[in-house]
Design brief:
This protein is of the alpha/beta class. It contains 11 helices and 9 strands. It has helices at residues 6-16, 49-57, 89-92, 106-109, 130-138, 157-166, 188-197, 211-217, 233-241, 254-263, 273-282; strands at 33-37, 62-69, 75-77, 143-148, 181-185, 202-206, 223-225, 245-246, 267-270. Strands 1, 2, 3, 4, 5, 6, 7, 8 and 9 form a 9-stranded mixed β-sheet that branches. Helix 9 (233-241) links the parallel strand 7 and strand 8.
Length: 283
């Protein structure tokens, strides 16, 4: 499914050496992954099971989540290192500021409401565990883009994530074309280490390595996933020239989605997977 169309790849290579303008993808060439950012987070509370399920319903190819670690070593799904923005932790535990995830046990975090901040109909949504997200996605067609958030704060988290995945063997099949699982991080040392732990699992670096750095990154990473502003035609071509895929974030504007599709990205990360799916299908 993640095939690289030969014509588009050849055109990207020509662009990379400065002989032609950026290629424009045609309908026959488009094979772009729709990636639901923190689930369908424009419509449901981010990084909850409600958002994950809605992303699947909106035909995302992958659902992106953020993984962190509790005080007692549990893997939970949340973006911020602290809990106050997306839960009622300040009301439940007023004396525990600054409410770091690493200062709470899983049982304590499970008492929090992670949905009401978004809308009343999501009251009672919990902060899920990684295991719960894996179980939900395993029942459907969507894969997982797992971001290890601030892994430097959580010694041993790479091994814990690897262990959670290995406990469900279908997630770690050596099938790089399945759009099943990618593990990514802004911490490139973590990405390199995780690649060594589970070399059969696709990994990605978040951010934009310089063109001088891409050759080294390509020795351990399958993807480069930059901010959308960094996904220029020239940068996309350079990433492809080094044999890696590129999935910019976080793209919520339909016109920008179309621009990136035309530039030849491999995937797009969006809070609005329904809009993205419509743009991909219409390209």
């Amino acid at each position: 499914m993640l095939r690289r169309i030969a014509v588009a790849a050849a055109a990207a290579l020509v662009v990379s050496i400065g002989l032609a303008p950026a290629p424009v993808a045609t309908a026959a060439e488009v094979d772009v992954a729709a990636i639901a950012h923190r689930g369908a987070s424009a419509y449901a509370p981010e990084n909850t099971l409600a958002a994950v399920r809605l992303g699947v319903q909106m035909r995302a190819d992958l659902v992106e989540i953020d993984v962190q670690q509790t005080e007692d070593g549990a893997l939970v799904v949340a973006h911020d290192n602290t809990l106050e923005r997306t839960t009622d932790v300040e009301q439940k535990f007023p004396d525990r500021a600054p409410w770091r995830i690493s200062d709470f046990t899983l049982d304590e975090i499970r008492t929090l409401d992670a949905g009401s901040w978004k809308a009343p109909e999501f009251a009672g949504e919990q902060v899920p565990t990684l295991a719960e997200v894996l179980d939900v996605l395993q029942r459907g067609r969507a894969g997982l883009l797992l971001e290890a958030k601030s892994p430097e704060l959580y010694p041993g988290i790479a091994e814990r994530i690897a262990g959670e995945l290995q406990a469900r063997p279908s997630w770690v099949r050596p099938d790089p074309e399945a759009r099943n699982l990618v593990v990514q991080s802004f911490d490139w040392d973590f990405v390199r280490h995780f690649h060594d732990l589970l070399p059969q699992v696709q990994v990605g670096v978040l951010g934009a390595p310089t063109e001088a750095e891409l050759a080294d990154v390509a020795t351990y990473s399958n993807q480069v996933n930059p901010n959308q502003a960094q996904a220029t035609p020239e940068y996309i071509a350079a990433v492809h020239e080094h044999g890696m895929r590129i999935n910019p974030y976080t793209v919520n504007d339909a016109a920008q989605m179309r621009t990136l599709i035309e530039r030849g990205v491999d995937g797009i990360i969006s809070d609005r997977p329904d809009v993205l799916r419509s743009e991909i299908d219409g390209a």
